[in-house]
């Protein structure tokens, strides 16, 4: 990825007059999607079946109600080990994984938690949303996996898209520091990073330039009752997420209306969390993920996109080698082609399904 070209595109996006961000409208006529489950499921405000986890503790005195959306067929608790547990990206919601789940077929099962203040999850109690950071998000994911485990719902695969990839790395890092791991603690055998953001240890042309802080601040909004947030107006989503390295919006890109109707977007993220993710603002570096974090126990695959304007293919491959110690890149999966942008799971979810399937037998 040419940094100057990417920086120019981001600056151009700033010149667009942002429309006011609004909460996603809930269509009361949405039929409940079938969970196909022998487990009693709750129903989210958008009609999606799932599991409501009340009062998930993020830190002392701060809790939030989180909803684990069930896309596909959960079946019995024993069948749940065949489910995938997915983590969405920044300013995305759990529904951003729904096209991928549908592309897997009707017998598939993808469990996706809505992080706070989006989709079917609530707002934190005991703190403003804008006070949260990535450590709180990691705690949320850890607590969700723990509560699912208590219900004998134990998925063996975890996926993370974009910021979600960083959260998966941070969770593994936390568990490793405690003498545990995703495999030991939760029985997770597969981790798949999809267009993941990069930790401090991996060079990143766009992030290491020092120029992102001002761009992030340009999308800062002080929301009454919520605090300082980073918000991307839905009108700019085609330019931010469906644009290739030549600044073209790719075929299959969703319109702002389709994005809102699908519930794919969130109001925003805590500004603090976005600065932490990028090592900007008050943060001097990005979150850390030590070398060989996935050398054994949980097999890691890294999916990267040729036309991703945020992270280059070579940078994603470096991330994979850093985390696995695999110099042959056996489970690094580049997705090539003119439509391989940062949110391929929206525009061409079958391509992501095929990329993961093609690497099913990889090993290191």
UniProtKB/TrEMBL annotation:
Gene3D superfamilies given in the database record: alpha/beta hydrolase
Hydrolase recorded as keyword: yes
Assigned keywords, A-Z: Hydrolase
A Pfam family matched in the record: Abhydrolase_6
Stored SUPFAM superfamilies: alpha/beta-Hydrolases (SSF53474)
Repeat keyword on record: no
Domain AB hydrolase-1, chain residue ranges per copy: 87-355
Single Gene Ontology MF annotation: hydrolase activity
Family: Belongs to the peptidase S33 family.
Protein name, as recorded: Alpha/beta hydrolase
Origin species: Nannocystis punicea
């Amino acid at each position: 990825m040419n940094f100057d070209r990417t920086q120019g595109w981001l600056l151009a996006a700033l010149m667009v007059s942002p429309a006011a961000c609004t909460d996603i409208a809930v269509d009361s006529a949405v039929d409940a999607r079938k969970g196909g489950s022998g487990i009693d499921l709750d129903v989210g405000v958008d009609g999606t079946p799932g599991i409501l986890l009340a009062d998930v503790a993020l830190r002392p005195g701060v809790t939030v109600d989180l909803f684990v959306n069930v896309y596909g067929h959960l079946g019995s608790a024993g069948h749940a080990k065949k489910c995938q547990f997915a983590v969405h990206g920044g300013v995305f919601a759990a529904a951003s994984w729904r096209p991928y789940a549908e592309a897997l077929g009707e017998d598939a099962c993808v469990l996706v938690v809505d992080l706070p203040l989006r989709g079917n999850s609530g707002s934190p109690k005991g703190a403003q949303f804008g006070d949260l950071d990535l450590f709180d998000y990691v705690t949320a994911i850890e607590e969700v996996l723990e509560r699912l485990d208590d219900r004998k719902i134990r998925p063996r695969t975890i996926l993370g898209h974009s910021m979600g990839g960083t959260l998966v790395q941070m969770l593994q890092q936390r568990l490793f520091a405690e003498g545990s791991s995703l495999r030991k603690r939760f029985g997770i055998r597969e981790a798949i990073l999809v267009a993941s953001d990069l930790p401090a240890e991996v060079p990143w042309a766009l992030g290491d330039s020092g120029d992102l802080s001002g761009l992030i601040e340009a999308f800062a909004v002080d929301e009454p009752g919520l605090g300082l947030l980073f918000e991307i107006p839905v009108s700019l989503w085609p330019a931010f997420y469906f644009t290739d390295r030549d600044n073209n919006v790719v075929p299959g890109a969703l319109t702002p209306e389709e994005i809102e109707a699908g519930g794919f977007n969130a109001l925003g993220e805590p500004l603090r969390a976005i600065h932490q993710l990028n090592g900007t603002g008050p943060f001097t570096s990005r979150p850390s993920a030590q070398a060989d974090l996935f050398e054994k126990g949980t097999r890691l695959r890294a999916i990267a996109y040729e036309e991703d304007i945020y992270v280059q293919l070579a940078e994603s491959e470096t991330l994979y080698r850093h985390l696995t110690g695999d110099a042959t890149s056996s489970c690094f999966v580049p997705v090539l082609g003119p439509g391989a942008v940062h949110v391929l799971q929206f525009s061409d979810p079958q391509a992501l399904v095929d990329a993961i399937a093609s690497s099913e037998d990889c090993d290191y």
